[in-house]
Amino acid sequence: MRQSDIEERCRAYIEDWGESAPQYALMLTGEWGCGKTFLVKKIIDGRNDEANMRLAWYISLFGVKKAEDVDDKLFEAAHPILGDPKKKKWYSVGYNVLKSAAKHKYGIDLKDMTEPVLKLFKEKDENPAGCQVLFVDDIERSSMDIKEIFGYFSPIIEGDTRVVFVANERELYAGNDGYMQIKEKTVGETYEIEPDYDEALEKFWEEVTMKESPSSDERKKQLSDIVRILEVRNLRIVRQVVHQWAMFFRQLPKEFKEDDEFIGNLFEEYIVLSICNKKGEMHKSMDSNKQGNTGKSSSLAHDGDVQKMKSAWNSYKEKRRNRNKGVLGEADIKEIWGTGKINYPLRYAELWPYILMKGKDADGAWLRDKMQNSYREHQEMLRLREASKRNIERLKTLTFYQPEPHERDIKELFECVLQEFDDGKYTRFDEIIQYVQTYLTLMHGKILPNTYGYDFLEKQLNTFLKNHKDKISALPEFERVQRKQIMRFNHEGIQKCINEIFDAAKEVTGTSEKQILEHREKFLKFISNPDRAVTDWVNIPFLCQIDTDKVFEWLGDDFNAHKHLLKFLEYRYRKDFGNDKLHETDYPDFPHVESLHAKYSERCRGLEHSFRLDFRDYSELRDKYGELIQYMKDVMNQNCQNN
∠307-309-315 over CA atoms, to 5°? Predict the structure, then answer.
């Protein structure tokens, strides 16, 4: 039942006061955080504003242990009226409610009061001021027996005061097999509340007054989509996350706030991971990551935390893709060649363990530095994307997705892409495949005129090879893809051209691979991105290709470079990588990892007891390499036993 319908029924139940005496209560039930209290407060505020007086009262039984505690709660609710002598004249409404409140306030039972005072309580008046409806929240959080709770309020209900109980009934059923029999004597109608996302999110957003954001409405829509995709039923979690985002947002530098796309990416990751963390899908594991007795966090984040976040992010993105019928932005998807899997890049993966798990204890300078690095990477991505805004992308989008009415005639665009291809504008292997795939899709769909058939495309590809073969390139992920893994085309001539293009791309990629292993700066840049550990060189061991003495020399005294290599290798060998483990392909790397561990051990022996603070850093690296070695041993031994 919709919240608006439940609200309407509650209002009718309240407004019928004086016209009939149903002598039963309503029950509003729902999971914790679904918006029960939010709806109740809305009804109360509406009723009191309409009457211009407090006719609707609210009490919570959270922590209540005995009937006297309920008396206290009622007194707190009644106090604004009982404490104002000018309003004593209007004590007519809610006689049975005020009975407990009066006893608490004045220390007397109503039966002992003089007839004139009794008359004031019972007398109906055109301007009543008292309790017309009482909302009793959190009854499952009281230590009182449910039978005692209903028994307490029965005289109030029978005295014609409307009572609405609010609870998570699943808890009441779980704790009492006879709950239904007890309930039916007091409660006449029960309504289950489902989260009203739109209204709740609007309210939460107003609370944090995010007016300083230039795209506040867009962020609200983004939030709504995330909440629905993650199927969040506890709105309290959402409210907490929104408030925490507001505090985080206000601390960002001005240039970040003014970059709407950067903020959009940051917002999505922050909200998704915060919600998943609060739902218990990720657990703190950074407490042991300390240095000495200072308690200061080490600069090495726990990979387990990062992997949990990446797993949660991938799960969210997959749900989002399915919800959007498979459509996602190009920047959201990274396909790993040859594995058939799709990864969804978590742009600020190194930030979140500190921001979301360490909170205020995180190293502020470290965070600011990391944010600046992330922003620079974002700007570089924008520059590259701007440079790659090509007609071929527009044609692909119109071909494979539903075009707008004004985009249905693609003649001019197709001819433009055709000419650009002939001119050598598209020389990356994935762009060439994309062009061929789009061409054939349009041809098979009878969109293109008959002149554009297989023969035309074969001739075009041969001309392309003649004029632009030396310019063909490929993405880094391409270097270990085998020819059998590429798309197959049902035309011998076209397939022959694609194979030749593939071979040209492989040759260029191999040269790029060689440069990474021969040039220090290229190597250090390569290992700084741990994602490439699982996407590059997928069919051969990594460390076997390079001398570890040279690697250690390249790392020098750059501690960040040492950390990058460690993280790269931990990713490569799938340490703390969910269900994935060390691949047999990388077994030959084991002695090289041992060699690196020996070098760190030697470095530590030279630094210990010599006033060198960097001993702590290198000893931590030594220990982590020791853990990596033990992990690799365990996996290889287990695999040996299984075989």
Answer: 105
Query: How confident is the model over 213-238, as a mean pLDDT?
Result: 81
Tokens standing for residue 282? 């990720």
The vertex-158 CA angle with 154 and 164, nearest 5°, equals: 65
Is the pLDDT confidence value at 377 over 90? no
What's the rounded Cα separation, in Å, for the pair 60 and 73? 7
Q: Please report the beta strands in 261-387, taking only residues with DSSP state E, as ranges in sequence order.
A: 290-291, 296-297, 334-335, 342-343
CA Rg value for the chain: 34
- Region 593-615: mean pLDDT is 94
pLDDT at 249 over 70: yes
pLDDT of residue 340: 46
* Parallel, antiparallel or unpaired: strands 290-291 and 56-60: unpaired
DSSP assigned state of 17: B
DSSP 8-class letter at 298: P
pLDDT at 73: 82
Q: How confident is residue 562, by pLDDT bands cut at 50, 70 and 90? A: very high
Q: Which residues lie closer than 8 Å to 321 by C-beta, 6 or more apart?
A: 327, 328
Strands 296-297, 290-291: pairing is: antiparallel
pLDDT at 448: 94
Helix pair angle (95-106, 67-82), 10° resolution: 90
Average pLDDT score over residue span 178-188: 87
**DSSP secondary structure of 524-574:** HHHHT-TTHHHHSSTTS-SGGGS-HHHHHHHHTT-HHHHHHHHHHHHHHTT
E strand intervals along 251-393: 290-291, 296-297, 334-335, 342-343
Domain 3-194 has CATH 3.30.750: no
Which pLDDT band, with edges at 50, 70 and 90, does 415 fall under? Answer: very high
| Residues contacting 411, CB < 8 A, separation 6+ | none
- Here the tokens at position 296 are 């200061």
Check if the beta carbon of residue 447 is closer than 8 Å to that of residue 487: no
